[in-house]
Design goal:
By secondary structure, this protein is an alpha+beta fold. Helices cover 45% and strands 25% of the residues.
Length: 256
């Protein structure tokens, strides 16, 4: 076979090294390489350059992946910190607003129920105050007394609303407030009072109110649906504290 010029072989070496040359070309090159040291050196140098380029590309890819992973971790950490900050901010704003008192007109507050509870010589008037207008807020109150020169007492409950929202157990919101008043022979009247000084009488000594037992009978017989009475086993002999809690927090909205 006629010896092929090295310049021609070296022109073909890149295709040969990349394994894209034809079988006939490969055979021609390999026959030449058997006897040509110069072309073997050229091929080796060419392969070294290709390998070094591959290594360089791999290193660049590894560096990019490391940088991407690092940036991703930073983004996740930043997102977590930002989320925590937002939650804390919302909580602080909620607490600040929830501690702010607001005016509520006494005419928008009604006595939902009232009964007397007698325990030995102690007599207590139990009331449940409710405001449909402010049912998404907490109804708050502070009591004080006024005693005249003859010892007659009048009890005042100063009311207001507080907070953004007050969700009860049934999820509907509940602005109701249980309020207990200790009674004796000197207590003549009980009022609720708003921040503007408006008064609303809710009890006086001549008013007829239910006893605790009468209240339980009223609740079980006349107010709560019978399916609820049966489902929860409400009975007249149940403790008044439990029955009142049940009424106030569990079914006040659902049974109406």
């Amino acid at each position: 076979m006629k010896q092929i010029d090295c310049d021609i072989i070296q022109d073909l070496l890149p295709s040969y090294s990349d394994k894209v040359s034809s079988d006939a070309t490969n055979k021609l090159i390999e026959e030449h390489l058997k006897t040509c040291k110069k072309c073997n050196i050229a091929l080796n140098n060419m392969n070294k350059e290709i390998n070094s380029e591959i290594v360089k590309n791999q290193k660049e890819q590894i560096d990019y992946l490391k940088k991407y992973k690092k940036n991703k971790i930073k983004t996740i950490i930043f997102t977590i910190i930002l989320t925590i900050d937002i939650i804390i901010g919302i909580f602080i704003a909620y607490m600040l607003l929830n501690n702010k008192e607001a005016f509520v007109d006494v005419n928008d507050v009604n006595v939902e129920y009232m009964f007397k509870l007698e325990d030995g010589e102690k007599e207590e008037l139990r009331t449940y105050l409710y405001s449909e207008k402010y049912k998404k807020h907490f109804l708050i109150g502070n009591k004080y007394e006024i005693v005249d020169s003859e010892g007659n007492k009048e009890i005042y409950l100063k009311i207001a609303v507080k907070g953004l929202i007050n969700l009860s157990f049934d999820g509907t919101g509940n602005s109701g407030r249980n309020e207990f008043f200790e009674l004796d022979e000197n207590v003549k009247k009980i009022y609720i009072e708003d921040k503007k000084g408006n008064l609303k009488e809710i009890w006086n000594k001549d008013m007829k109110v239910m006893s605790a037992d009468e209240w339980k009978h009223w609740y079980i017989d006349s107010y709560a649906p019978q399916e609820i009475v049966k489902a929860y086993g409400l009975r007249y002999d149940l403790d008044i504290h439990w029955t009142q809690w049940y009424y106030t927090f569990q079914w006040r909205h659902l049974v109406k």
